[in-house]
C-alpha cells in the first residue's frame, strides 16, 4: 500500500496549525509538517504516537487523528 496520499494530506493539514506536531516512531521523532520526514518514516507497520503542543493543539489532534484513521495508520494521539 502506498502512503503517498496520506503523507500529502497529513502534511497539508499539519501546516495549517501553529502547534508543534511531532510523530514518534520507536526512537525517532518526525516533524509532521515535513513531507520528506513523513516519506522516510511512514513505512512498514510500526506503531506511532502523535504529540501535539501549542495554541491550537486540540483542533490539530482532531483533524490529524481523523486522517490517520481514514488511511488505516496505527497512530495513537497522545493527550
UniProtKB/TrEMBL annotation:
Q: Where is the HPr domain?
A: 9-69
The entry's protein name is HPr domain-containing protein
InterPro entries reported in the protein's UniProt record:
HPr-like, HPr-like_sf
Going by the entry's taxonomy, the superkingdom of the source organism is recorded as Bacteria
Entry's Pfam families? PTS-HPr
Amino acid at each position: 500500500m502506498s502512503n503517498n496520499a496520506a503523507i500529502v494530506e497529513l502534511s497539508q493539514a499539519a501546516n495549517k496549525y501553529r502547534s508543534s506536531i511531532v510523530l514518534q516512531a520507536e526512537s525517532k521523532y518526525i516533524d509532521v509538517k515535513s513531507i520528506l520526514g513523513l516519506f522516510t518514516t511512514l513505512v512498514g507497520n510500526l506503531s506511532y504516537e502523535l504529540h501535539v503542543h501549542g495554541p491550537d493543539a486540540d483542533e490539530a489532534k482532531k483533524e490529524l487523528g481523523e486522517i490517520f484513521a481514514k488511511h488505516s495508520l496505527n497512530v495513537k494521539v497522545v493527550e
